[in-house]
Amino acid sequence: MTDFLAQHADVLITLVKIALLLFIVLTVNAYLTWFERKVVAHMQSRWGPHRVGPHGLLQPLADGAKFLLKEDPTPAGVDKFTYFLAPLMALALALTSIAIIPFGPDPIRVFDRKIYLGIVDLNIGILALFAITALSVYGVALAGWSSNSKYPLLGGLRSSAQMVSYELALTMSVVGVLLMAGSFSLRDIINAQAIHPERGIIGWNIFPQILGFLCFFIAAIAETNRVPFDLPEAESELVAGFHTEYASFKFAMFFIAEYTSMITVSSLCAIMFFGGWLSPFPASWTFTHYLPSAILIPFGLWVIWDGIRYETIFGRIILPGVGTVITVIGAVLIAFPFLNEFIQGPFWLLGKIFFFLFVYVWMRGTLPRFRYDQLMSFGWKLLLPVSLANVVITAAVILLRSH
Amino acid sequence: MNTPLIIFFVLAFTAILGALSLILQRHPIHSALSLIVVMVALAGLYLLMGAEFVAAVQIIVYGGAIMVLFVFVIMLLNAGVEERTNFSKLAGWAGLPLAVALMGVLAAAVARSTDRVQAVTQAGATAPTKALSVLLFQEFVYPFELTSFLILVAILGAIVLAQREKI
Amino acid sequence: MVPTHYYLILSAILFGLGVVAFIFRRNIITIFMSIELMLNAVNLAFVAFSQAWNRLDGQVFVLFVIVVAAAEAAVGLGIIILIQRNRQSLNVERVDLLKL
């Protein structure tokens, strides 16, 4: 038995990593819906979910229970195979794209075996992500078509045309970063930004590639069908677009696919343009290594203080408990410097991902949506030429600099 | 029976199943989905052979653009299940034996040349993408520019062909 | 290591299945898709040889085949749309106005 484990250890470790990452991503998805509802609500001067559990923190559980227990009707006249395939395809592709993202630089050492954070490091990391993005057009198009109904068909066709158009700008806007890094692999892209550790934030790709970043971010929002590009699924326009005829669990699959692709796009922005797991401070400022603890300990204490004065009894038990756990984690990081060094990379990457998710939710609460013809002309007439210009300028600068 | 051989058989089996499904399905959208399965299986085979850039381009361009075009046209034209017309008996009686004969000739040609087609060295290009791009932009730059012209002509042709009739 | 002739046999089988689909199907779009299947089978043979002889020319040619297939698909589907408009049917046997 132990021989079998020792021989196939790599496969088993990868399976454990996949299971752990799936669990984490699905939980983050659930709490991302809570986060979005809370932030949009506060922007609109209301409270959002705050009844189910303290501060509405158990709302995702209630939503999940609803999705699992609601009736799941199949409309008449649908093409059964395609109707069932479309949400599966969307979900599977969205979850597969998380496998390519590296979460930290240093491997964990367990029983003298190095385990890297991140499931796989492909030579063609970015290209594989674009391949998955290209295939996810099918989830939308087939969902719209197989529903045997006018509004989903229109919504599906519009949405897939939008996704195909913005895919071009998406791939072009990344070429500048690839030219600077010289490789498709995501770890190499981050390491290319870490060549001068003394520069800190100035060495990141955002400053030379500001045009590329803007094009990438806008095109990625259009790819994930979020506001302001969500006309195909807007309620006032097309009922609910391509997922009108989908009920509880299949609708939940589309939902999870959309939020997971939001997370993927945020991590790509963080990795390619904002330095990934690199700290914005120069490497010689080692006191900034205490920043995780400096954030966690006051936050934990505030949660305890807020929990003690909470209105429900349940909240008065749970919130101080959660706050204590957070404070203890912060204190442990100060007490064990080895753990502190290890957590620096993932802390900065997760912080940047969280920042981009906040920008996504912020845009949802603030911006109106594009009309469909404005959307298409923006993608083809503005975004694609700008990203092409970015490629030409980057290539010219690299060529001139190498002489 | 090492791991690459197992992966090869799984992917080859998937590709053949997809191709059979393309022939046997009645609705064109199911044929299109089977063809997408074939293309993804072939991309997996390219990865197995070490041609990683070609595998990515296969999925992005073939599976993500050309097949999307097919699926759009099937949806727009509302193509339904094929009607059974049997106007031509010749295709049925002569076609199948001829197709089997074609496959037999190809298989025989392959089988006879197995000893001449051997892998010279272990395939292990360290940066195939870089070498590929050097080849593409230095030796093959003229066909490369010609294909860009070809795509422009195709775009113009498609726009002209699919225009709405001017009243 | 997978021997090269395994890939070539698979390529021959896929090509033959593409020919069978081309002969026996009546829907124009399915016939067009069988052409794409044949092109894919040929691509597989190219990449197999490129790996066998350790030269990258095969992969460059595969890129060109994919580009040409894309252009052909665009124009061909435009023609198919016109056929549907003119003959109101996607059955290839209904396109017989030039028949004696």
Average pLDDT over all residues of chain A: 88
Tell me the span between the first and last alpha carbons of chain C.
Answer: 56 Å
Order of helices and strands of chain C: HHH
Which class best fits the helix and strand makeup of chain A? mainly alpha
Structural class of chain C: mainly alpha
Main sheet summary of chain A: 2 strands, antiparallel
General description of the model:
The complex is a heterotrimer of chains A (about 400), B (about 170) and C (about 100). Chain A is built from 14 helices and two strands, in the order ααααββαααααααααα. In chain A, about 70% of the residues lie in helices and about 0% in strands. By secondary structure, chain A is an all-alpha fold. The mean pLDDT of chain A is about 90. Chain A has a domain at about 75-285 and about 335-400. Chain B is mainly alpha-helical. Chain B folds into two domains: about 1-80, Four Helix Bundle (Hemerythrin (Met), subunit A); about 130-165. In chain B, about 75% of the residues lie in helices and about 0% in strands. Chain B is built from six helices and no strands. Chain B has helices at about 5-25, 30-50, 50-75, 90-110, 130-140, 140-160. Chain C is mainly α. Chain C has one domain (about 5-90): Orthogonal Bundle (Helix Hairpins). Chain C has helices at about 5-25, 30-50, 55-85. The longest helix of chain C is centred in the last third of the chain and has 31 residues, at about 55-85. Chain C is elongated and about 50 Å long. Chains in contact: A-B, B-C. At the B-C interface, helix 1, helix 2, helix 3, helix 4 and helix 5 of B face helix 1, helix 2 and helix 3 of C.
Primary descriptors:
heterotrimer, A: 403 residues, mainly alpha, 2 strands, globular, C: mainly alpha, Helix Hairpins, 3 helices, elongated
Secondary structure: elements and pairs:
The complex is a heterotrimer of chains A (403), B (167) and C (100).
Chain A: H1 2-7, H2 9-43, H3 59-69, H4 80-96, E1 108-110, E2 113-115, H5 125-146, H6 150-181, H7 186-193, H8 210-223, H9 235-238, H10 248-273, H11 291-308, H12 313-335, H13 337-366, H14 372-401
Chain B: H1 3-24, H2 28-48, H3 52-76, H4 89-112, H5 128-138, H6 141-161
Helix pairs in contact in B: 1-2, 2-3
Chain C: H1 4-24, H2 28-52, H3 57-87
Helix pairs in contact in C: 1-2, 2-3
